[in-house]
Amino acid sequence: MIRTGISMLALASLLAAAPLGARDRDGEAAQAAPTAADAKAFVADAEAKLFAQGVVASRAEWVYETYITPDTEALTAREGAALTKLQVDLALGAAKFANVAGLDYDTSRKLGMLRNKIVLPAPVRAGAADELAALSAKITGMYGAGKGMLNGKPINGSDIEAAMGEERDPAKLKEMWVSWNDNVGAPMRPDYAKLVGIANEGAKGLGYADVGAMWRSGYDMDPDAFAAMTDKIWNDLKPLYVALHTYVRHKLNEKYGEAVQPAKGPIRADLLGNMWAQEWGNIYDIVAPAGSGSVGYDVGELLKAKGYDSHKMVKAGEGFYSSLGFKELPTRFWERSQFVKPADREVVCHASAWDIDNVDDLRIKMCIKVNADDFVTIHHELGHNYYQRAYNQQPALYLDGANDGFHEAIGDFIALSITPDYLVQIGLLDKSQVPSADKDTGLLLRQAMDKVAFLPFGLLVDKWRWGVFSGQIPTNGYQAGWDKLRLQYQGIVPPVARDETRFDPGAKFHIPATTPYTRYFLARVLQFQFYKAACDQAGWKGPLHRCSFYGNKEVGAKLDKMLQMGASKPWPDALQEFTGTREISGKAMAEYFAPLKKWLDQQNKGQPQGW
Ligand code: X8Z
Ligand code: ZN
Q1: Which one, of 314, 276, 299, 606, lies nearest residue 461 by Cα?
Q2: Residue 60 lies in a domain
Q3: Is residue 451 part of a domain?
Q4: Fewer CB near the terminus (10 Å): N or C of the chain?
Q5: Which pairs from 291-295 meet CB under 8 Å and 24+ separation?
Q6: Contact 186, 503 (CB under 8 A)
Q7: 583 annotated to a ligand binding site
């Protein structure tokens, strides 16, 4: 399959019945009614064609993203358009079997998948798929080659991302934030609006109200119930986020003063150590508990002190999976992956994982920096690769995660096991440096700054996109719609006024790349469900956040069973296989952070809550 970021085939919702049958049946009244055997043959043929074109499109996209030129852009657009045409053709063909009696389970499931798993559907009219693919390739390249400014000089995407984590001068933070959003986002606004129009036309042609409705229908459940489920999870965890927000705002106010960060109201978006304010772990030093309560080490500093480079960091990631019993990565992975940013050309630095031939041509594409963020991201990307390899025996339409949130959660769940004791085991931390139990608050706060802080962002990106696709956010209100959601959910504001000449959503990779984002919200809670289940399986009795299942082969074997299922069964079956429950919920995450919540509530006494 193509890289996970734009995986075009995934789990289908068997419940979604696109109302296409009548029109198509009328057109073919003279033909004999299709049988269950016809349906089975149709699916087999579809799988062969999708597999073949998927590999070609993947290769073209890989070359483009690792070497952005007008030629590679044209080549990937051509193969992307061919794949989309094939997918749309097959979706329309699959609809003809909707009412056939006697379909076996897999045929029925796969027919559903053929109909609702196109991320960016194109209308069938001549030229539409080509135009859509060209727009998509163009804005992905604009993002990849995009530059911000620091100290009056241009700075590329991966450097500016790292600098946002390290810089503490509010004027420089503002310079980077404004330049990145202005230079990268704004210029793609007209193309993005065109892309939305064409893809919506494509979704309507397949029987959906709009692209967002199509995306929501891919979760083995009613699409509205799916959206309601995500809202419920957010509402359950919101008090934890608000407590963190309140505490962090107070600390930022202490550090920067009223003129930069007022004590009340929203937080200024560029002060949180991340270009999108999506994870705040990089400013842990500003919020760390006073005195001896802090953690005492920083993973990035440890990696630097031990002389780690990108290769060694990836090796450490592989080592974790090997310790669980997973086969080591193939030689080709090391030969063909991109670990560092090439000096002589433009690339898409945003991290992704690929399985080019759907068998064993696994690769990651990153521009690795020796820091804590990228150490976690390496484990994240490898999670995709091990998942892809585990399910590679499945038929083509099942070569995917149980749902897209599962795919995003595997590596993160593994990375939750990067505890102080684990760092000692792999020689990164000295035994004498292991934080004692009185440092637990610091450890939890460091985690919360990344994990809890992300929740509202994880939810709002697709709230914005669903609104754009449905028309509820009009073309002339893209920026205002974005700012409103950022304030409502995250409680943050841009450092300077924005208007409709801007397009800040375009300065976030997943918007130009059209990677659905709710997956990351799901993954944020799922990873704690997986982690808790693994720690229970390992018989862990201590505080949850101190558990590492490194080296536990039983956990590895059980995980492998879930991964091997791919998309062959509805996701609750896969969840049950590993965790024993059939529901995605924030409970495990709330349990993990419960001691921190108590502490935050203490700290926040007398402070204004919320924004
Ligand atoms: O895009 C990613 C991965 C690639 S699938 C690096 N993530 C989201 C993001 O960076 O916005 C992982 C966390 C959220
Ligand atoms: Zn990912």
Answers
A1: 276
A2: yes
A3: no
A4: C
A5: 292/438, 292/439, 293/438, 293/439, 293/441, 293/442, 294/439, 294/442, 295/435, 295/439, 295/442, 295/443, 295/446
A6: yes
A7: no
> Which ligand 1 atom lies nearest to the CA of residue 458?
14
Task: Confirm whether 587 is domain-assigned.
Answer: no
Q: Is 510 a catalytic residue?
A: yes
Q: Which two tokens stand for residue 285?
A: 């030093």
Is the whole model's pTM more than 0.90, yes or no?
A: yes
Range of the domain at 89: 36-115
380 is in an annotated binding site: yes
Distances (CA, A) of 67 to 62, 161, 540: 8, 20, 46
Question: Considering the domain boundaries, does residue 247 fall inside one?
Answer: no
Query: Would the CB of 185 count as within 6 Å of ligand 1?
Result: no
Strands (E), 466-509: 492-493
371 contacts 165 by C-beta, under 8 angstroms? yes
Q: How many domains does the chain have?
A: 1
Pocket lining: 503 vs ligand 1, CB cutoff 6 Å:
no
Does residue 494 have its Cβ closer than 6 Å to ligand 1?
no
Mutation choice for ligand 1 from 355, 408, 462, CB with most ligand atoms inside 8 A? 408
Closest atom of ligand 1 to CA, residue 377: 6
Question: Is 352's C-beta closer than 6 angstroms to any atom of ligand 1?
Answer: yes
Is 276 close to ligand 1, i.e. is its CB under 6 Å away? Answer: no
Catalytic, 381? Answer: yes
Ligand 2 center to 411 CA (angstroms): 8
Distance 517 CA to ligand 1 centre (A): 9
Closest CA to 184 of 465, 506, 480: 506
pLDDT along the chain (611 residues), means of 10: 41 31 45 92 98 98 98 98 98 95 97 95 98 98 98 98 98 98 98 98 98 97 98 98 98 98 98 98 95 86 97 98 98 98 96 96 98 97 98 98 98 98 97 94 97 98 98 98 98 98 98 98 98 98 97 98 98 98 98 98 95 97
